[in-house]
Predict the 3D structure of the following.
Amino acid sequence: MVVGVDESASARDAAEWAADLAAVWAVPLQLVHVVLGRPEDGPLPLTPDWLREMADAAERNGVRDVAADVVPGGVVETLAARAASARMLVIGSYGEGAWTGMLAGGAAIILIDHTTCPVAVIRGSAPEIPPPRSGPVVVGADGSPAADSAVDLAAELAVSLGSRMVTIQAVSATPVDVATTRVAAVRERYPTLPVEQQVVAGTAMNALSAHAHEARMLVIGRHVAGGPGDPGVVLGVTGHALLESAPCPVVIAAQPRPTTQATRLRAKPAAC
């Protein structure tokens, strides 16, 4: 788990959120504080007290392997490089300034476009308000490869955190349940996971927003555009809007696999 951190309360919330998962998943946690500059510019500043405190809190939370790094460079480039081998990249949403990379919006979307692993943007209902620690894991499900990846991740998160899962399929015409196959596979894989399926009229944005106030987190997918030689990642209008307005964490699933494999559940969680 890689977490981009600064001294803000939002970054502290992101570190705590990531530590909860890292402890359950038994994976290392990297807290990365990026300072603008280049390695040749001179010695890095000493690890600040607030960063040590974040690492200590993660260890107390049960994370066995915690690293706290101060790294020179650009925020987006550095975090994207660290995320290349990560299970998940986690960032806060209310930072001290856009250059820190801790703000939802432009910086988060650039990171999402430059990573293939899941990206979690940790939000509460307002600045200084921690993210919710109860409620269901709500996921957008429409039968697409992107949504299937999101359903898989949402199920894994719900089981890991002891939550229930709610799948939301928004339709603008006659309801057609196209997510049944994927949800059935999830039920088979996690037989004790409480799963609620909803097919609602309207847009995905309105449907997910309506459930966000009671959710522990929202999980959404990202589509792959273009051909095999140009697999551009597209978050979509709904994803952009939720990153800016959701009162709970928004988790963007990993880049979906090719269509031929997208309908198969992973036998075990992927490395990122």
Notes: The chain has a mean pLDDT of 83. The domain at 137-262 is CATH 3.40.50.620 (Rossmann fold). The chain has two domains: 2-122, 137-262. The chain is about 35% helix and 20% strand.
